[in-house]
Amino acid sequence: MKIFVASDIHGAHDQLRSQLSQLGNPTFISPWPSDEHAFETEHDAVTEFHRENGLASFEQKIAKAVNGEDALLIGFSVGATSIWRYVASNECSPNSRAVLYYGSRIRDCSELVPRCSTSVFFAEHEPSFDPHAVANLIRKSGAFCTVIPDTYHGFMSPTSRHYRPDIAQEQLSLLRSIAHPIRPT
Prior knowledge:
The chain is an alpha/beta fold. The chain has helices at residues 14-20, 42-51, 54-66, 78-87, 131-139, 165-179; strands at residues 2-6, 27-29, 71-76, 97-101, 117-125, 144-152. It has a 6-stranded parallel beta sheet with strand order 2-1-3-4-5-6, sandwiched between helices. β5 (117-125), α5 and β6 form a beta-alpha-beta unit. α3 packs across α4.
């Protein structure tokens, strides 16, 4: 199964590539025309992303890259929300699997129902919404959803001030087990 990683607003930067290289050779998808964004601040990047109809555009970019194949889809922040939208579309193969991290805008489309096995992980502390309330809505879709205690948005990203290497390692172990399941001999 091919692996696709939809990055956060910072794009498919070297730290993300290095961190996820242990999964093999995933295809990285950035919300930007190149791998990284060229903005002075994160606020500028977010403003431009939403000005350009970012979530819908990023969802279309993901759909084009995956091309209906069975895939492991991994997303972070805007990448997670865009994958959430994609896995609810008819373009997503029901044999795919999605693992999504702190896609805060999932709250705006929590009524969607994924066509494939989907796991959603929220940070406990989000400034703009109650992750527990959104997690309860997401669970109604049939997706696995949990809120990771004592975390903030960006806990998986080595470039974030909220990076939690201990939790990132736990989640990378989970991703490795999904990407390379041990098969009995």
